[in-house]
Design goal:
The chain is mainly alpha-helical. It is 73% helix and 3% strand. The longest helix is centred in the middle third of the chain and has 28 residues, at 65-92.
Length: 131
């Protein structure tokens, strides 16, 4: 009697078969870039703690063309990462009920984006005012 081998489904490219998983994997692939930018900011804090000379060196490195190119790329990746997190926010939080009606997912996402944009504008104005 012949022994049947069990069927083994391949997992190659499983995430490319469904647009939902493609978007999910694209969002997950931005996570290392978020961590990289967090390390850049942490290096700035360390240099700030080391004194004015170290911080001036840090600012000089940030002004280099390679650093500027890196930051332009990181801004694009971080904007995508942030927006996709705002899109999944309605799925991860409890329902918000206003006047007896449940707030739509689009309203939650657009509200979060609006609050983030307002915070960025305030920080931009504050940075200009302090400079």
């Amino acid at each position: 009697m012949a022994v049947r081998r069990p069927y083994v489904r391949t997992m190659d490219g499983w995430w490319r078969r469904d647009p939902f998983f493609v978007r999910y994997m694209a969002r997950e692939m931005t996570a290392p870039f978020v961590a990289l930018y967090a390390l850049v900011l942490l290096a700035g804090l360390v240099c700030l703690a080391l004194g004015p000379a170290a911080y001036e060196d840090y600012v000089e490195v940030l002004a280099s063309p390679a650093s500027l190119a890196l930051h332009v790329a990181l801004v694009g990746v971080l904007v995508y990462h942030t927006f996709t997190w705002f899109q999944i926010m309605p799925k991860t939080m409890p329902p918000i009920v206003l006047r007896g009606r449940r707030l739509s997912a689009a309203a939650i996402t657009s509200g979060a984006v609006a609050v983030a944009a307002l915070c960025m504008a305030v920080l931009w104005l504050l940075a200009g005012w302090l400079a």
